[in-house]
Amino acid sequence: MSLFRSFAAQEKGGRLQPYEFDAGPLGAEHVELQVEFCGLCHSDLSMLDNEWMMTRYPFVPGHEVVGRIVEAGPQVKGLKVGQRVGLGWYSGSCLSCAQCLSGNHNLCPQAEATIVNRPGGFANRVRCHWAWATPLPEALSAAAAGPLFCGGITVFNPILQCGVLPTDRVGVIGIGGLGHLALQFLNKWGCEVVAFTTSDSKRDEALRLGAHQVINTRDANQLARIAGSLNFVLSTVNAPLPWDAVINSLAPQGRLHIVGAVLEPIPVAAFSLIMAQRSISGSPVGSPSTAAKMVEFCTRHQILPTIQSFPMSQANDALDYLRAGKARYRVVLQNDLG
Q: I need a surface site. Which of 32, 116, 151, 269 has the fewest CB within 10 A?
């Protein structure tokens, strides 16, 4: 019997309670991780509250895991027991569809999400397919690295997928859990970076994180001054924006890329795209190969999220902290379950 200790909610929006379960035999291509740290993402809250209508209870959150491999199936490749790895939103994919075979594993129609219909990382141990366990070098802080595997890869992936150049002038909308990492990535990528925020109180922090200029999106005059100047704008927020002004900030052939799951439709005037050959796109998290590139880039430039730590036994306090909008900028739980 493989008995795992975890924290789980028994109902929609419920408080997390100690929960033990039998994980069954380890799959031939799977690894088992001793969880060291697990980030807390807003997606965990959405799943806890069943906002996406796909949560199964008991629900064990957690999909920004850093841990050591303690067991590996006989068909695991490229990993070994004792190795530290990171695990993000996805824990498996089919490896045989057109998307997987082309390297876009994150677009696999059969991809397995770490906290959907299976227990996540708010536990002493968690499992995944070997392909989705990303080796983590000792030079990168294990305590802070967890959010890279969801928040980090979400904003790093479009830099590669959209062909952002070091010579580009780029904008980042939202200086939060995603945006504060995007500023660091794009600055070290070599871009001129403009931060968009609704809060002037974040100006100094945005500049420290890598922005060269800060624009308040509530000020029409500031938005007008950058009209037609940005090659790429990355939106990380889930709230409505002055979309006309944002799109008009794009240079000819510029792109607005969406990674923040804004629930309302985005109104777009066709001619604002047609006449300047602009585009709008979106993306989820990245593939295993992109995650490996991100880790290498973060190690080279010592890029890490700004975190606030809680012991895993205080997971409910951490959830309340995130719900209250107090996180600056990512919350990480340290495993104290043994």
A: 269
